[in-house]
Amino acid sequence: VRAAHEAGAPWGRLPAKERSARLRRWYELMVENKEELARIITAENGKPLKEAQGEIMYSASFLEWFAEEARRIYGDVIPTSAKDRRVLVLKQPVGVAAIITPWNFPSAMITRKVGAALAAGCTVVVKPAEDTPLSALALGELANQAGIPAGVYNVVPCSRQQTAAVGEVLCTDPLVSKISFTGSTATGKILLKHAAGTVKRVSMELGGHAPFIVFDSANVDRAVAGALASKYRNSGQTCVCTNRFLVQKGIHDEFVEKFAKVIEKELHIGNGFDAKTTQGPLINEKAVEKVEKHIKDAVSQGASIVTGGKRHSLGKNFFEPTLLSNVTTKMLCTQEETFGPLAPVIKFETEAEAVAIANAANVGLAGYFYSQDPAQIWRVAEQLEVGMVGVNEGLISSVECPFGGVKESGLGREGSKYGIDEYLEIKYVCFGGL
Predict the structure, then answer these.
(1) Are 201 and 215 within one domain?
(2) Phi, psi dihedrals of residue 178, rounded to the nearest 5°
(3) HSE on the CB side for 294, CA within 13 Å?
(4) What is the CATH number of the domain that holds 139?
(5) What pLDDT does residue 129 have?
(6) 102 and 247 inside one domain
(7) What does 21-52 look like in DSSP terms, one character per residue?
């Protein structure tokens, strides 16, 4: 933290064009080293190499985007009612930002925050997840090569046992001005309490419970393709993965049948370095146990396993992509975020019923629905209580678009033209006696 604080003033005073050039060079180095960086992700996270390669390019794109945004931090000149005054609004870096990131996207969750922070003129202390520290350190090596000064990008890896203590230091140190966290809602609430003591700026991207609604008017084949992409990417371990499928009764049976066939045909469990693999291992034993618990609870209440349902013979952390039907809203899998390869399907009758079920959660990160009725599309898109909506689309993350949630899914937005505002203070300057 002290290193970041000491590096802050000189970095913040650099012309925006210079900060932009260093970020741009960092982006270029990521692209040049994309294969090695992807292999690090697969080795420490388990996701298939093709997905890891996609993450590196997505990750690098945030450095490219914010390199460009660094030169567009505009203030204002405000007309006043007094003849002898002039009013300016400046935007200045908040200071040292503590960046706490998860294991499921060990590179992209860093650059999405750090790109904005450095573009704004802030310095950062990154605490990567204890499961995936190597990606953060690799990014640090490339930052050095890009000419980003010592102290501007700092990494503090730590063990699982030390995570709470390190998190508390980052959230309570008076030299830290801003906390940006991606992770569980429960942990986010703890960090918010710590940050309150010194009234730090906070942005958080917390847990989701994404609904995926398929209406009778939908193109079922497209809905199935979107469902597969949305649910089983990274073996179901993304914060915007679908957690609940709601399918209208008119097309319910057709959707379930086609979804099961596609799961069995297109998903292949294996070592992430095997080119055929689409489903790697879950991150640890605890993650597998949660999937098992949700399936056991659902089946005990009358759900049916359509496909999958158990651990894979390849190893203890590998789990079969699973589809459940006859699911109700009383089951754990529709009340909690599973964070694994489990797709529970609820049958519904009316649009109002689907929206009510979708909005019953205390979180609201992403939501998806498939419909070909224009009026219904407008209604449902506006009524879903989430920060991001995919309409006839299962993959919605993009560097140009604001990423974040409502309710207990977090505070603030990342990426897009809005993302840099999280690292800027607004200063009003009044010139009198003119």
Answers:
(1) no
(2) -150, 140
(3) 28
(4) 3.40.605.10
(5) 97
(6) no
(7) HHHHHHHHHHHHTHHHHHHHHHHHH---HHHH
- In contact, 361 and 339? CB cutoff 8 Å: no
- Assigned token pair, 349: 């009758």
The answer to whether residues 11 and 63 belong to one domain is yes
Residue-level pLDDT at 64 = 98
Give the C-alpha separation, 2 to 174, whole Å. Answer: 10
Integer angstrom CA distances of residue 190 from 155, 156, 164, 308, 341:
22, 19, 10, 36, 28
Contacts of 170 (CB under 8 A, 6+ apart): 1, 98, 100, 125, 127, 176, 179
* Residues forming a β-bridge with 64: none
Domains in the chain, number: 2
* Cα–Cα dist 241/235, whole Å: 9
Confirm if 260 and 307 have CB atoms less than 8 A apart: yes
Catalytic choice (171, 239, 241, 333):
239
Give the per-residue pLDDT at 421: 97
- 122 vs 179: CA distance, rounded Å: 12
- Residue-by-residue DSSP string for 140-185: HHHHHHTTPPTTTEEE----TTTHHHHHHHHHH-TTEEEEEEES-H
- Give the residues of the chain that fall short of pLDDT 50: none
User: Which residues lie closer than 8 Å to 161 by C-beta, 6 or more apart?
Assistant: none
Map residue 433 onto helix, strand or coil: coil
Residue 63, in any domain of the structure: yes
Q: Does residue 402 lie within any of the structural domains?
A: no
Residue 40 lies in a domain: yes
Per the annotation, the verdict on 205 as an active-site residue is yes
The whole-angstrom separation of Cα 373 and Cα 214 is 12
**Catalytic residue, candidates 44, 55, 205, 385:** 205
- Considering Cα of 34, then 236, then 380, then 415, what sign does the dihedral take? negative
Q: Are 102 and 182 in contact (CB under 8 A)?
A: yes
pLDDT of residue 12: 97
Same domain flag for 143 and 28: yes
CATH of the domain at 229: 3.40.309.10
Half-sphere exposure of 107 (CA within 13 A, CB side): 33
| Same domain flag for 257 and 202 | no
Q: What per-residue confidence (pLDDT) applies to 156?
A: 98
Identify the CA nearest to 321 among candidates 295, 338, 342: 342
Domain residues for the domain of 162 are: 1-206+409-432
Judge contact between 230 and 212, C-beta under 8 A: yes
Instruction: Check whether residue 422 and residue 375 sit in a common domain.
Output: no
Q: Are residues 355 and 420 in the same domain?
A: no
Q: 180 and 274 share a domain?
A: no
Please give the pLDDT value at position 255: 98
